[in-house]
Design goal:
Shape: elongated
Number of domains: 1
Number of strands: 0
Distance between the termini: 16 Å
Helix content: over 70%
CATH architecture: Orthogonal Bundle
Mean pLDDT: 89
Radius of gyration: 22 Å
CATH class: Mainly Alpha
Largest sheet: none
């Protein structure tokens, strides 16, 4: 892919001229920084209850105030970012590894293998992440692990379809025909030629799926199926804020804004990468 990859000459120069990539990268970096900082420091222990100080407004002591149990909102938001990162990385990683392997298998073997993978993908699409999480929690109980598994399973057919479609295009190229004539087998061709040439759409999809995973985790936690107390979660913060909507409406605004900015940032990164990694668009920049 001439000049279209991340390692291509001039990629970063073009990236700085992409508003979507720059803004999305800044928002995504803020999410990563919040999660990283919370590993070592937060203003207060996020689960520390202090009833006499409940529902305090923002102040020097509590930058964003406290909730109905006197817990520091800033600390909960910072530590809650960890869950978003963990769910996104593991769930998307699971979908990426398994989905790409299945998609490449379907493209390399064709025939019954391709039909089996595609029909299994259709079946999995019938069970969205939320429904899968409800079924899993009914069997194993609610928790962060079940959320990750449910979101990861839903991501597998997404990456499988993208990998298979992109790989089919590469298999029709002349250099693959030349590799076959040189005696290379399907797996060697997949590793040497197919995977490097389908990396761009997979990277774009990974960033978009990361945003979807954060949104799905927040929804599951909101419903009580995701992260369980005392571990902070943006979705559960929204759930707990419902009872205080008139007394302290900002309790719902803070986690809602955190979710919105994180999802927006990752989607903007995906849009920016899509433009930057497209060889046709890259040549126009």
């Amino acid at each position: 892919m001439s000049g279209g990859g991340i390692s291509g000459q001039g990629f970063w120069a073009r990236a700085w001229r992409s508003p979507s990539f720059v803004v999305g990268g800044a928002l995504s970096a803020a999410l990563a920084l919040a999660a990283f900082v919370s590993l070592f420091w937060s203003p207060y222990p996020p689960a520390e209850i202090d009833i006499p100080k409940k529902l305090q407004p923002p102040s020097a002591a509590h930058w964003l105030g406290t909730d109905s149990l006197g817990r520091d909102i800033t600390s909960q938001l910072l530590v809650g970012a960890q869950n978003s990162i963990v769910v996104g990385v593991i769930a998307v990683g699971m979908g990426l590894i398994v989905g790409v392997a299945l998609g490449c298998l379907a493209s390399a073997k064709r025939g019954w293998a391709e039909e089996l993978v595609m029909r299994a993908s259709d079946f999995t699409f019938a069970f969205p992440a939320l429904l899968s999480a409800i079924m899993l929690t009914a069997i194993y109980g609610p928790g962060l692990v079940m959320s990750i598994v449910a979101i990861g399973i839903f991501n597998i057919p997404v990456f499988a379809r993208i990998a298979r479609g992109s790989a089919n295009v590469v298999w029709a190229r002349e250099f693959v025909t030349a590799a076959r004539a040189a005696g290379k087998g399907p797996w060697r061709i997949t590793l040497d030629h197919v995977l490097p040439n389908i990396a761009s759409p997979l990277i774009v999809q990974a960033s978009i799926s990361f945003a979807t995973a954060i949104l799905a985790e927040a929804a599951l936690s909101y419903l009580g199926l995701g992260t369980q107390p005392p571990q902070p979660s943006w979705g559960r913060m929204l759930n707990e804020a419902q009872t205080q909507m008139f007394a302290a409406p900002m309790l719902a605004v803070y986690p809602g804004v955190a979710i919105m900015l994180s999802v927006l940032g990752l989607n903007l990164v995906g849009d920016g990468l899509r433009d930057l990694l497209d060889p046709k668009l890259a040549r126009k920049r």
